[in-house]
């Protein structure tokens, strides 16, 4: 039990916030008299958890920027956000003007879509709305409904340049697979501009680890048990001693059950159905938030073997868990990850 407890702080903090469902903040002094600022709230459709060590309380600044990111740039749900405006212009033949930030996000997503052979696809929007898993009206669509929308999925139909973005009629952009990672990127930009010694920022399933803890010991980050009874159950933990981004995608996060079948929210763009690669969880560690988030989705869809070349291309590390509770790791992850759950076993690739 001792080796499990040392990873629990962050995962339990996020879990408790989810149960309470409210904002909270605190200021404390660390053991070396350094200020510690914490803040929790709800934005971007998920729980935001911040722990910052430094001279200034930047927690509300970061939270405000995350809200602005959602409301003004990347949400398809928020009226007059840049992505919402792009979706409304579909088929008009006119380019939608974008900020440099949104333009860069889309270009990076398109490159990752190409590199993953379309496993990551930002044009999955209409089919994601059809399933609405995690929304107000989740359901399992009829095959005919999916077949009708599949022609409107294909990242190559999204055209982005310095003059804006253009999509054909019937297409809808959804950046849900990278949005939380983008939130972590924005958080790091704020930390970089200020006098911060260390921080952990959690935006749903994506985490930024920044700087050092007050006692200079490595960060301990828990990975959720994908078949645990609740979000406090953990698979194991990561020991982190450098700035990095960590993202996890799993079939346990958002799903519905029908006739004993689990239908999760990670949709395969090639079929329109929840991905069936044999995996139940993928955790990525790399040096960019958008990429860690997007890679966790792409690798979940691709499966263990097909993910390897993609991970190498982006110099990313990964932990894979399959439906038989086997755990696989890339070479670089073996020094970072410790399996603490006896219900799983590590298998050498």
Description of the molecule:
Among the domains are: 75-166, T-fold (Orthogonal Bundle); 218-348, T-fold. The chain is built from ten helices and 17 strands. The protein has helices at 2-5, 8-20, 59-74, 82-88, 100-115, 125-131, 143-149, 179-192, 289-302, 304-313; strands at residues 24-29, 35-43, 46-54, 159-161, 164-166, 196-203, 206-211, 219-224, 234-240, 244-250, 255-258, 261-264, 279-286, 317-322, 326-329, 337-339, 345-346. The strands form four sheets. Strands 1-2-3-6-7-10-13-14-15-17 form a ten-stranded mixed beta sheet, with helices on both faces. A three-stranded antiparallel beta sheet has the order 8-9-16. A two-stranded antiparallel sheet has the order 4-5. Strand 1 (24-29) and strand 2 form a beta hairpin. One of its GO terms (molecular function) is transferase activity.
């Amino acid at each position: 039990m001792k080796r499990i407890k040392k990873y629990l702080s962050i995962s339990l903090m996020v879990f408790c916030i989810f149960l309470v469902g409210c904002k909270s903040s605190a200021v404390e002094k660390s053991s070396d008299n350094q200020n510690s600022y914490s803040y929790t709230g709800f934005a971007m459709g998920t729980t935001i958890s911040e722990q910052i060590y430094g001279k200034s309380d930047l927690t509300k600044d970061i939270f405000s920027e995350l809200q602005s990111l959602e409301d003004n740039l990347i949400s398809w749900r928020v009226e007059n956000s840049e992505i919402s405006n792009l979706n409304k212009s579909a088929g008009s033949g006119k380019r939608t003007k974008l900020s440099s930030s949104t333009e860069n996000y889309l270009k990076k997503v398109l490159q990752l879509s190409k590199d993953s052979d379309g496993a990551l696809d930002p044009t999955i929007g209409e089919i994601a709305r059809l399933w609405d898993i995690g929304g107000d009206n989740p359901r399992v669509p009829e095959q005919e409904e999916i077949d009708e929308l599949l022609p409107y999925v294909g990242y190559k139909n999204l055209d982005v340049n310095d003059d804006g973005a253009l999509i054909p009629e019937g297409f809808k952009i959804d950046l849900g697979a990278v949005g939380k990672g983008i939130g972590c990127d924005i958080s790091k930009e704020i930390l970089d501009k200020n006098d911060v010694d260390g921080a952990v920022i959690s935006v749903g399933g994506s985490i930024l680890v920044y700087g050092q803890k007050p006692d200079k010991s490595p960060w301990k980050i828990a990975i959720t048990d994908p078949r645990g009874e609740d979000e406090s159950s953990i698979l194991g933990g990561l020991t982190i001693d450098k700035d990095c981004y960590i993202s996890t995608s799993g079939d346990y996060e958002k799903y519905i059950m029908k006739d004993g079948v689990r239908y999760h929210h990670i949709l395969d763009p090639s079929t329109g159905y929840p991905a069936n690669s044999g995996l139940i969880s993928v955790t990525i560690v790399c040096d960019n938030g958008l990429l860690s988030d997007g890679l966790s989705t792409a690798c979940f869809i691709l499966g263990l073997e097909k993910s390897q070349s993609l991970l190498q291309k982006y110099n990313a590390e990964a932990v894979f868990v399959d439906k038989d509770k086997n755990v696989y790791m890339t070479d670089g992850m073996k020094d970072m990850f410790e399996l603490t759950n006896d219900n799983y076993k590590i298998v050498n690739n």
